[in-house]
Design a protein that fits this description.
272 residues, alpha/beta, 8-stranded parallel barrel, 8 helices, 3-deoxy-8-phosphooctulonate synthase activity, transferase
Length: 272
């Protein structure tokens, strides 16, 4: 995939990794703008190609009383406003076939969640919109097997596809990242490392997913060191009170320092 196929993306000639980042879910316009403004400032200063991420709804939840969203159209309109206000592309997850057409009217990249990446109808619906498609690697899938999901998009005459590693199940309540999978998937498509979801601790007995945010810097540095094309990070100015995935998000206050370290590593890698 040519990164320039993503509308409005900047700094593609900088030699940096590209970044998909934002809150797990769109909780409201004010919070989305606050997070987007900070990330845009940082990524422009460091010349990092940036796509703002926010889920317009959350369908994969542990409990029926978990937060699922503020309304589909309302959240998608906020994503569209972020794009227009800050001049950046946006990405959101889709969970049902009908979501593809709806979300494609508002965002630039459609993301297929890891649990759903084998759902052919969903992948095809996303591909047929002509939008860039980001396929999350299933936690239950090998890196090699992702070639079949990629091929489904290509078979729809849509060359704009990328894959994202978000860890692999390790027992019942933990995830691991096998960095051997990065070069394997890069042979298939542009490859992203989802740092924060790779640090989830799912299936907790309380019904709320746990996480290891203290390991975000470690996993991110390793991903850049092995040459991943892009990094995916969820961030929030108040993770403890975020309505989704707060346990594994990066606090927004730490975002700039981490990006500076990752840029420095990428510059070193580029010199070899």
């Amino acid at each position: 995939m040519n990164l320039n196929s993503i509308p409005q993306i900047k700094h593609t000639d900088s030699g940096n990794f590209f970044l998909l980042a934002g809150p797990c879910a769109i909780e409201g316009e004010e919070m989305a703008f606050k997070i987007a403004e900070r990330i845009v400032t940082i990524t422009n200063d460091l010349k990092i190609p940036f796509v703002f991420k926010g889920s317009f709804k959350k369908a994969n939840r542990s409990r029926i009383d978990s937060f699922t969203g503020i309304g589909d159209e309302k959240a998608l309109q906020i994503l569209q406003k972020v794009s227009k206000e800050f001049g950046v592309p946006t990405v959101t997850d889709i969970h049902e076939v009908n979501d593809a057409h709806l979300a494609a009217q508002y965002v630039d990249v459609l993301q297929i969640p890891a649990f759903l990446v084998r759902q052919t109808d969903l992948v095809v619906a996303a591909a047929n919109t002509g939008k860039v498609v980001n396929l999350k690697k299933g936690q239950f899938m090998s890196p090699e097997s992702m070639k079949h999901a990629v091929q489904k998009v290509l078979d729809c005459n849509n060359p704009n596809v990328m894959v994202t590693d978000r860890g692999t199940m390790f027992g019942y309540q933990d995830m691991i990242v096998d960095f051997r999978g990065i070069p394997t998937m890069q042979q298939q498509a542009t490859t992203v490392l989802d740092v924060t979801h790779s640090l989830q601790q799912p299936n907790q007995t309380i019904g709320v997913t746990g996480g290891r945010p203290d390991m975000i810097e470690t996993i991110a540095k390793a991903g850049i060191a092995v040459g991943v094309d892009g990094i995916f990070i969820e961030t929030h100015f108040d993770p403890a009170n975020a309505k989704s995935d707060g346990a594994n998000m990066l606090h927004l206050d730490y975002f700039e320092d981490l990006m500076k370290k990752l840029v420095a590593i990428r510059q070193t890698v580029n010199n070899f």
